[in-house]
Structure formats: C-alpha cells, structure tokens
Amino acid sequence: MAPEVPEPPHAPHHGSSLPRWLEWTTAISALVISICSIGIAVYNASIESRLLKANSYPYLVSAFNDGALSGPDLLSVELMNRGMGPADERSLRLKLGGRYVTDVQALIRAAVSPAEADKVVRLLVGVHDNEATRFIAAKDQVVVFQITKTPQNAREWDLLDKGLTSQGLEIEFCYCSVFEQCWTVTGTVHTPVKACVRDPAHEFTPKPRYAASPLPPA
How far is Cα 173 from Cα 21, in angstroms, rounded to an integer? Predict the structure, then answer.
C-alpha cells in the first residue's frame, strides 16, 4: 500500500491592501449614502402624497338663486363643486330668519304669511333632490330644490321670493374629500373639521309633497 502523500499547506489569506482608515471611510460612506437614499425616497413619497391630495381637494359652495339668465325665473338652492376632486356632502341645513327649516313646505310657511301659506304651498310645485347626502363630482353641481315661476303661480312665487330675500336664507353644510378631510361651511366660510356630524333634528331634506319631476341637467 502506497504511503499517503500529505496535502500541501493552504496559502495564507492576505488581508486588504487598503489602509484600515480607508476601509472604515468607505464603509461609513456607503452607509451614509444608503441612509440618504432612504430619506430621499421617503421625502419624495411624502411630496407625491401631498400632490395627490392637492389634486383631489374638493371646494363645495352653495347658491340661492331667484332669477335666470335665460328662460323662466327660478327659485333654487344649489351646491357646486369648484375643486379638483369629488365632494361627499354629508350634512345640509337651511335657516330662514335665524330658524332652521327642514323641508320645502316648512321653508314656504316660514317665508310667507300664515294666511297665504296654504295657497303658496299648493301652487309652488317644484322639483326636488330628496337625498339625505350627495356625492358631487369635480366641476359639477346639484340642485337641491327648484321652483319655476309660471303665469299661474307668479304672485305666489313673488311672495316666496320676497320672504326669502327679506328674512335672509342661510345655507350651512359639511362635506369631505376622498381622503376624509372635512369642512363645515357657513355662508362662504370654510372651516376644517375632523368629521362631519349630522344634526337629525335640523337637517334639510326637501320631502316633496307632490310627485317630483326628474331634475334637469346642470
């Protein structure tokens, strides 16, 4: 049996030829670059999120109209979204003479004299959006209610218009963005809030007494 030949010794492991201080400098530099890259990525993500929210902000405004640029005169309350994103309207309240009214009939009775109220209610048949809440796309608008002036109801229409104008119709509402950023609005003042809170006793829902016709396109 042949004698075993011993394995040759392993070559000794040679360390880096770089100076120790340069190795540490290189490692620390790589770590700093990595941390900076992460910070830049987080910052960019934050900027993109803010830009996305900015491009999705709604801006909901209300309007009370008692005329028309063309066609018949109209009495109407409308909500218009002038922002870049959709508006989720969650609360709507109307005040006349400092008191809340909860439907169109109550609004009419508050605006005219008791002696005229029944006749005005009977003759002023309007169209109504009777939803409790509304989702309004950017640059779109909805008509909450609308009453058209006709030869048959002109006197009663004028009585209602005068009462609404003289007593001061106030519109309050609350809406949110798709990111759950919410605002309450009184008149033209927008106030940020954590959430919209409905006030069931004072919410305005037109509740038409008569069958409502479909709303005309905005």
Answer: 67
Cα–Cα distance for residue pair 28/45, rounded to 1 Å: 26
Q: How many CA atoms lie within 13 A of 138 on its CB side?
A: 10
Percent of the chain with pLDDT over 90: 58
Contact 150, 71 (CB under 8 A): no
Q: What is the pLDDT of residues 24-74, one digit of tens each?
A: 777 777 777 777 777 666 655 555 555 555 567 999 999 999 877 677 889
Per the listing, tokens 């006709």 go with: 150
Half-sphere exposure in the Cβ direction for 104 (13 Å, CA): 24
Considering only residues 35 and 114, tell me which one the structure prediction assigns the higher pLDDT.
Answer: 114
Our CA dihedral for 68, 74, 77, 78, rounded to 10 degrees, sits at: -50
Give the angle subtended at the CA of 186 by the CAs of 96 and 57, to the nearest 5°.
Answer: 140
Which residue is associated with the tokens 């540490």?
24
Asked if 86 contacts 136 with a C-beta cutoff of 8 angstroms, the reply is yes
Can you tell me the distance from the alpha carbon of 136 to that of 141, in angstroms, rounded to the nearest whole number?
6
- The per-residue pLDDT for 212 is 41
What is the phi/psi pair of residue 94, to 5°? -120, 135
138 neighbors 83 (Cβ within 8 angstroms):
yes
Task: Please determine, for residue 92, whether its predicted confidence score (pLDDT) is greater than 50.
Answer: yes
Which one, of 109, 172, 173, 96, lies nearest residue 136 by Cα?
173
pTM listed for this prediction = 0.71
CA atoms of 6 and 154, how far apart (whole Å): 120
